[in-house]
Amino acid sequence: MDKAISVKALTIAYGAATAISAVDLDIAKGKVTVLAGPNGCGKSTLLRAIRRLHQPKSGEIRLGDMPISGLKEKELARHIGLLAQSPSAPDDMSVEELVRLGRYPHQTMLQPWSAADADAIQAAMFGTGVSHLAERRLGSLSGGQLQRVWIAMVLAQETDIICLDEPVNHLDMAHQIDCLDLVGRLNREHGRTVVLVLHDLNLAARYADRLVFMKDGSMVADGAPVELMREALIEDVFGISCRVIEDPVHNRPLCIPIRNSSPRFGAAPAA
Amino acid sequence: MPLASSNTSIRVPRRIGRHALFSGLAVLLLILMYLSLAIGYRLYSPAEIWRAVTAFDGSEAHVVIRDLRLPRALMAPLVGAALGIAGVLVQTLSRNRIASPDTLGLNAGAAFAVVMASGLFGVASLPGLSLAAAAGALATSLLVFGLAAAAGGISPLRIVLVGVTFAGLFDSFVNVVLTVNETMLDQLLFWLAGSFADRKLSLALNGLPFVLVGGGIAFYLARSLDILQTDDSTARGLGVPLGVVRGLSFVAVALLSGASVAMAGPVLFVGLVVPHAARALVGLEHRLQIVAAALVGAVYTTLADIVARFVIFPREAPVGAVTAIVGGCLLLLLLRRRAA
Fold first, then answer.
1. ipTM of this complex prediction, to 2 decimal places
2. Which residues form the ABC transporter domain (chain A) (predicted)?
3. What are the residue ranges spanned by the domains of chain A?
């Protein structure tokens, strides 16, 4: 397996609280890796650490052979793109103005705008189907359009690795599929390595080449969706009893949740 | 690695006629600067103005033109440009469109320093008060930035909170001192209201380098400032060193506001209104926003300075009051148009 990123014995703490502890993970080049787990399991922290938004307490992250701690800000931004969770920009910014921001890591004081920048912006907007929205203000877009525009901004960055932190939150079902299909296409047709954080286990199983389960800051399991989507394992990680069947359309495992096995909101009184 | 090729080319600079816009504003500014020399309590012909500059003969007209009119014709646009750029920086830095150098307490800090200098050390001369104002603005910006950055990273919200707190504190101090000491109120009111009148040319020349350096820093940071308009995670993901950019922006704001408050006292509302006008004209890219804000700010204060000579003719109104009244109306107009 060709490694895009390798995480070694990574521990990250917010003050005294440990967010993730001793995580080892290799992220395969050209594959879609999905980090999944219950709320607060550390999946977003791990993703953000890969983009160096958190300083490790111990351990190391390597990009290929280079430790990311040694890279300059812009250099790292030319390798790894990040779509943050619930990103924000002014409502009166135009779509094109936002997508242009993606070129920042490629620009210098002496070479502010090049033909390559214009090409990248054009290709990113075309690839995400937002070219016709170029002059529109962000505040006038629907949630689905807005998410495509943000993905276009990350694409304009032209990085080999793209990290997306819960990109389909707040989107309706059609736009969730639309957005993840787009991400899948970037991976298949353009060979981008994709790392996703997803809440929805069934979407994770459908789009992942490789699934990573996290719980309480540790990595619990990692493998192909068919290996990980087992009833006992899901119950252990997500605290919910379930039935796993095969999705008859995509032939991927599909989880049908049944009952919360570790109630968080108080159990019904025993009979 | 382009995703797909397409023949429709993207117009790299958005919005047409940008050069025409900038040239138009520059021409307007020159006309206003000329009017600032020519009209007021007395009117002077172009020939007379020319002679006063090239062949000074010591006549009353020449003294008025050279010593009274020329300094303010140069200082008004300088202060307007400085406050316009400072306003853009503060609004981007705080991600808050109703923030301005006033919000950060810089003018209040300057006023406080002026009152202290006058009360404790008996400073009465304009150069002395200017120096105190500059020191007060710089000290306040250090204080605000230091406190906003103290607890870990500096956040846009904390900048505004700390700034508003100091603005309120310093304003109250000034009010208390001036209520107790009416003589001082009489002496300082001309300064506290903001004015370009009775300034020496040397004051404008001393302010110029600070405005140039502050404006230069802002222009140098333009690309990073574009990205500062997004959330912190996105900005860092794009490779912007947030701490460095915010720190440098603060230095620029301190230089620009400090220089303008030293030259003219607190000229209110310019730093708030001008960035809105600049964005309406050229969009959100800072490279353009900064140039537009400098030009619009210069036009605005120069015009306000001329208007101030006539609103309560033959006396002069404080220019700070004019910019605040006109600015308030302009802002309401902009908001109404935005809402429509």
1. 0.90
2. 5-241
3. 3-87+159-260
